[in-house]
């Protein structure tokens, strides 16, 4: 875990650089009023979900988020955004190849020496947020910061919150629990999905994620005194108290920027993984680039 701890801690500075990049590279990103699709795999898909919700909520236009293999054939868009840390994800490159000459495409990547640079009509490079760890942390949040800044959000509060969460104590007793549920609403559903993925990758924990109100419709049955239920953003009225009555450890900091709160989840995942003797830099069954039969290299993110 020599890399991931440092990469998690570097996020406030990476976010500052993403805000600055949004000012200079903003002309490459989707224009207000365009119908847009944004896609990626794994973590990048979850950041796409968050961005799509934020863009529509900001009144910038209809925005769909897809994992790379599930983009509907023939659906019309004014611009398509591909999010890939390595720039080598085979599914992402396949989509960009198919779309070439049909719709303007934008690639968001950390590595300017990879095929995504050639297959995208335009690119934005976040090389300052690239990572050595297989478990992705700062590239994901830096890309989302770029998107949020381009939509006009003031990220100064989020950066200040991040400076706190990189060192703040983890929720008391969280490392002793065995089951973790992450809940969001609106754009933070994507963050909840990403939080659960980080716990699975880095610590092999039993984790799930849901829209907060959907959690009431069945998934709540898994929760007991061994559970952590973590709200990314403000919880729906009454739900926090319902969960607390079950005996779960409830984590909710509604006044904190949810993207900054994700940092504490990353740190919890790494801490539990280390306590289990795992190496979060090299998760079981994962590599930064995966070779699948009959395909080119496939990035796990």
Structure description:
One of its GO terms (molecular function) is carbohydrate derivative binding. Keywords: Repeat. The protein is α/β, with parallel strands linked by helices and 301 residues long. It folds into 2 domains: 150 residues, Glucose-6-phosphate isomerase like protein, domain 1 (Rossmann fold, 3-Layer(aba) Sandwich); 119 residues, Rossmann fold. Helix content is 38%, strand content 17%. It has 10 helices and 11 strands. A 5-stranded parallel β-sheet has the order 2-1-3-4-5, sandwiched between helices. Strands 7-6-8-9 form a 4-stranded parallel β-sheet, with helices on both faces. Helix 4 links the parallel strand 3 and strand 4. Helix 7 packs parallel to helix 10. The radius of gyration is 19 Å and the shape is globular. The two termini are 18 Å apart. The C terminus is likely disordered.
Which structural traits does this protein have?
301 residues, alpha/beta, Rossmann fold, 2 domains, 5-stranded parallel β-sheet, 4-stranded parallel β-sheet, 10 helices, 38% helix, 17% strand, disordered C terminus, Fructoselysine-6-P-deglycase FrlB-like protein, carbohydrate derivative binding, GlmS/FrlB_SIS
């Amino acid at each position: 875990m020599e890399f991931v701890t440092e990469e998690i801690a570097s996020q406030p500075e990476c976010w500052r650089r993403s805000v600055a990049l949004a000012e200079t590279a903003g002309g490459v990103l989707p224009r207000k009023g365009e119908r847009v699709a944004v896609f990626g795999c794994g973590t990048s898909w979850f950041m796409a979900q968050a961005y799509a919700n934020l863009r529509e909520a900001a009144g910038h236009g209809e925005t769909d988020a897809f994992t790379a293999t599930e983009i509907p054939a023939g659906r019309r868009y004014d611009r398509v955004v591909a999010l890939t840390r390595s720039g080598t994800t085979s599914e992402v490159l396949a989509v960009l190849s198919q779309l070439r000459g049909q719709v303007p495409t934008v690639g968001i990547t950390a590595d300017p020496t990879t095929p995504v640079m050639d297959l995208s009509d335009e690119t934005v490079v976040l090389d300052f947020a690239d990572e050595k760890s297989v478990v992705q942390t700062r590239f994901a949040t830096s890309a989302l910061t770029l998107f949020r800044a381009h939509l006009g959000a003031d990220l100064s509060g989020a950066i200040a919150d991040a400076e706190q969460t990189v060192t703040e104590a983890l929720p008391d007793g969280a490392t002793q629990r065995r089951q973790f549920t992450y809940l969001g609403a609106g754009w933070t559903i994507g963050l909840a999905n990403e939080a659960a993925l980080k716990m699975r990758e880095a610590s092999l924990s039993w984790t799930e994620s849901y829209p907060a109100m959907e959690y009431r419709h069945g998934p709540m049955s898994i929760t007991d005194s061994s559970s952590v239920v973590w709200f990314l953003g403000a919880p729906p009225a009454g739900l926090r108290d319902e969960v607390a009555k079950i005996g779960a450890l409830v984590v909710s900091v509604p006044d904190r920027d949810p993207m900054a709160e994700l940092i504490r989840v990353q740190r919890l995942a790494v801490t539990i993984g280390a306590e289990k003797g795992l190496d979060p830099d090299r998760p079981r069954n994962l590599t930064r680039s995966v070779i699948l039969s009959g395909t080119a290299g496939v990035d796990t993110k």
